[in-house]
Amino acid sequence: MSKLAEPGALRSPRRDLTGAPFLAAARGARPARTPVWFMRQAGRSLPEYRAVRQGTSMMRACFTPELVCEVTLQPVRRHGVDAAILFSDIVVPLYAAGVGVDIVAGTGPVVASPVRGAADVAALPALEPDAVAPIAEAIRLVIAELGSGPGGIPLIGFAGAPFTLASYLIEGGPSRNHERTKALMYAEPDTWHALLAHLAATTATFLRAQVAAGVDAVQLFDSWAGALSERDYREFVLPHSTAVLAALAESGLPRIHFGVGTGELLGAMAEAGADVVGVDWRVPLDEAALRIGPGRAVQGNLDPAALFAGSEVVATQARRIVAQGRAAGGHVFNLGHGVLPETDPDVLTRLVELVHSL
Amino acid sequence: MSKLAEPGALRSPRRDLTGAPFLAAARGARPARTPVWFMRQAGRSLPEYRAVRQGTSMMRACFTPELVCEVTLQPVRRHGVDAAILFSDIVVPLYAAGVGVDIVAGTGPVVASPVRGAADVAALPALEPDAVAPIAEAIRLVIAELGSGPGGIPLIGFAGAPFTLASYLIEGGPSRNHERTKALMYAEPDTWHALLAHLAATTATFLRAQVAAGVDAVQLFDSWAGALSERDYREFVLPHSTAVLAALAESGLPRIHFGVGTGELLGAMAEAGADVVGVDWRVPLDEAALRIGPGRAVQGNLDPAALFAGSEVVATQARRIVAQGRAAGGHVFNLGHGVLPETDPDVLTRLVELVHSL
Fold first, then answer.
1. Where in chain A are the domains?
2. Chain B nearest C-alpha distance from A77 (Å)
3. What dotted CATH number matches A2-357?
4. Does A282 touch chain B (CB under 8 A)?
5. CA distances from A323 to A34, A355, B216, B233 (A)
6. In whole angstroms, what is the distance from residue B256 CA to residue B334 CA?
7. Tell me: the pLDDT tens digits for A45-69?
8. Which three-class secondary structure state does DSSP give residue B49?
9. What is this model's ipTM?
């Protein structure tokens, strides 16, 4: 655990973002306008993204500071969102640590030698902060562009949570049923916990490096946690996600925790130490607020598929979500999952205007 | 609606299956042994299935009575399960009605001309019972082999529910995000309801043909319903699934209703008219029983991925599930989703023995 708690590592001069609606809502206040950003706002839905990515592999893009900076800023310029999110990928810290992993277009992450037992876990390389120096440099470039004071835009750092990283490592790539992952989890709990502790340390190191470089909040994505029952989540995952979020506590920055299909897990994911809990579209925000308990904010809830249904539908749903979000201790407007690649960017721009007007 | 309620169509002489544990549990009793069957028990996990399917396309197999009979019986012979389930595919009634759809290996159903608007819906062909005569013939062959009296094994008929069929028709194949489906649902509710009413009639016709041919229970699979919020499910789906199940009420046969990731929908899916509600592994059966309400049985709950974790894990989980199932009005042991193709069939056989011994 010592790696998770190097005191002082998180201290760095921060921009003054007093009054930024995103930070206020994430801390449980109700700012004058509901803040809005979109998961995957920096990505394939934007033609300017597709243009700058052309000819550059995903992994190379993630380690090229100027490109990360440009892509991170694109949706801020275009949509006027209330937060930027670092352009990165969930396997970036694994790649940086030296794990053989690549992003294959049309497939997703592919791991050269999947983790199948205790020896594989023991052989996993640790992440040294220096290995993510290009990401830290990207963060410094972004922040210089995002301004400070009134009108300054916060930057959200992010990382994948231990369970989701474990699934990629064990399955060797994206998996629909996570059968190898669950088999290891159930059959070899000691190996499992060693793996998740390693990944928690990796994730904490990565997020602390982002904090040290100047991000204003962090989001821990547990994309696949919804594949687990609450019982299994609490036994096999919660301690490790808790360790990651605890390692960021001293930063004082808002910590967002998100997964998809996690209606049954919202309470547990809040207990992990989240200041903001992400909610997909299956559970309305007022009900989510009950499950999450008092003193935490909610984020999300608009079905990304609804963005294909025309402006009237989008407006009706956005109004309902803003109204239901009032039941929570803070509401950050977002989608219930990432922007789908075919989304019309103009729909997103108009949605930001609408949410700001409500 | 007249198509859903031709009186007398369901009357046919039935086998005497008094005392069959599956039928008793499905009707809310607690038979001496907990009945067990597995979704997708007839399929790729069995080498004898792969042998007989070799060289025959999925759709051709589904319309070849002798082959359907053989494949349906294989898991009964091998595992000693308490029910057979008709070997078929969710798009069979669409294909039989004349919709251009095929099953492409490695992809799933592919629809030649996806449904994108009101004119496409109006042009959809109705299903005539004669078009599924080969399936009715297969059912008669299966039943002759399943015996009657003590030791006779019930046969479960099945069909895909209107929402899941609609998603295949609209997306043109399997879809992760169902964005076109939801866009049509939200943006053109009249077209949507016309489509789902058409598909409810198709499904009812298909299931009534199965009942007339002699199945002893039916399962309505709404594979993708878990992609919806409860609010949307109730508005856009529930009336149509209710119409299907109502069309089978006069048969007096148990009606099972199942979907994946439907923790939020269990109450609504019960209200649709299910005698048995299928539950995946995310919600324990005692909690599911509360959501479903009294007077209905539950089915399912073992994570298919747990079958890869060794016999001790399987036994521990099976014992827990049988114990939690006692909270419900009847419990049919099953997986929380279909058997995964890589599953070791011996694990299933031993699981049947174990559940019977508890």
1. 2-357
2. 26
3. 3.20.20.210
4. yes
5. 11, 11, 48, 21
6. 12
7. 999 999 999 999 999 999 999 999 9
8. helix
9. 0.93
